[in-house]
Design goal:
- With 314 residues, this protein is of the alpha/beta class.
- It folds into two domains: 9-140, Rossmann fold, CATH 3.40.50.150; 143-313.
- Helix content is 24%, strand content 24%.
- The chain has helices at 9-16, 19-32, 48-55, 68-80, 94-98, 122-132, 156-164, 219-224; strands at 38-42, 60-64, 87-90, 106-109, 136-138, 141-146, 152-153, 183-186, 199-200, 211-216, 231-236, 246-256, 259-262, 277-281, 290-295, 311-313.
- Strands 6, 8, 10, 12, 13 and 14 form a six-stranded antiparallel sheet that branches. Strands 3-2-1-4-5 form a five-stranded parallel sheet, with helices on both faces. The protein has a three-stranded antiparallel sheet with strand order 11-15-16, with no helix packed on it.
- It is globular and about 70 Å long.
């Protein structure tokens, strides 16, 4: 989730300057793309992955991007890096590009949201890979986890004003009186919550302690997770909840063998991460277990500055 839009310069600069994200992409592309390969970059954005592919030896790169403004940025990036003869920009959606019957060796897509499923339909990316005859995709594998401990708002923010205004009763500032949004985000790195104004992190659980919710590495494996309506139902049993807690979701995305990125709270400290952690508000969950639903049918444009609504607590 970005504090901006995908067709804005600010958002693309934020993504590119995320060194953890950008350098891992570069390394994965260098290990995957071979000389004279044809590459399809779905949701090309700034065009940085297309440029990496060209530098890795691709003879042709199809940069697919439906934002007209972003396509303008890609074309400038390609021209200034002297790659006009290698990179071709397609101003269309993934579904529209699918109709062009383009062959490829590698399909890559930065199709990752805070809870994996966001903005760009992963099923369309897999369809392009399948139709193009590509030998592989980047990313290779997707995993979604739940952090084993709840996340809470930073209580010290209200406590400080209560101390200064003891004559005022602030007890109404409670989820029972004022409901918060069903979905939210946090920014934690190296188990540090100082960069997040609203939420605190009270534990340091390593990635291996997370609760795995789903995993897939192909179109069929993703479809196997879905019901007949393309919805993924997730049930978390025996998870201790309370009225003011939030469930934190994080991903592990495998780009190439040992090249894996994550938005786990313990991820490396960079100060420039463009991925947040997804928070699910549990204040209205009266059940002993947690039931989540991810609806792959929901496709909403231009909501990059708020959580994607395809994830709900049911």
């Amino acid at each position: 989730m970005f504090k901006g839009k995908y067709n804005s310069f600010f958002s693309h600069r934020t993504m590119v300057q995320d060194s953890y994200r950008t350098i891992n992409w570069k390394q994965a592309i260098e290990k995957t793309v071979k000389k004279n390969d044809i590459v399809i970059d779905v949701g090309s954005g700034s065009g940085i992955l297309s440029i990496f592919s060209a530098h890795a030896g691709a003879k042709k790169v199809h940069a697919v991007e439906k934002s007209k403004d972003a396509c303008g940025l890609i074309k400038k990036m390609v021209a200034r890096n002297n790659l006009n003869d290698v990179v071709e920009v397609h101003n269309c959606s993934a579904a529209e590009f699918l109709k062009k019957n383009v062959s490829a060796d590698v399909v890559l897509s930065e199709c990752i949201g805070d809870h994996i499923f966001e903005y760009l339909p992963i099923l369309d990316v897999y369809a392009i890979a399948e139709k193009s005859g590509a030998r592989c995709c980047i990313p290779e594998n997707f995993k979604l986890f739940a952090y084993p401990d709840l996340i809470f708002p930073k209580s010290n923010l209200l406590q400080s004003i209560e101390r200064n205004l003891p004559e005022i009763d602030f007890s109404c500032f409670d989820p029972d009186f004022l409901s918060d949004a069903p979905l939210d985000t946090a920014y934690f790195e190296a188990y540090d919550d100082s960069s997040d104004f609203y939420f605190g992190l009270s534990s340091k659980r390593p990635p291996g302690h997370g609760i795995k919710l789903l995993e897939f590495s192909s179109k069929q494996k993703l479809l196997n997770l879905c019901d007949n309506d393309n919805k993924i139902q997730i049930k978390i049993d025996n998870f201790s909840t309370c009225s003011s807690g939030y469930l934190l979701l994080y991903f592990e995305i495998q780009f190439y063998k040992d090249i894996v990125i994550t938005n786990h709270p313990g991820r490396p400290r960079t100060g420039s991460h463009s991925y947040f952690q997804r928070l699910v508000n549990l204040s209205h969950n009266s059940k002993k277990n947690i039931n989540l639903e991810i609806d792959l049918n929901i496709q909403e444009d231009s909501i990059e500055d708020r959580p994607y609504t395809n994830l709900t607590l049911v």
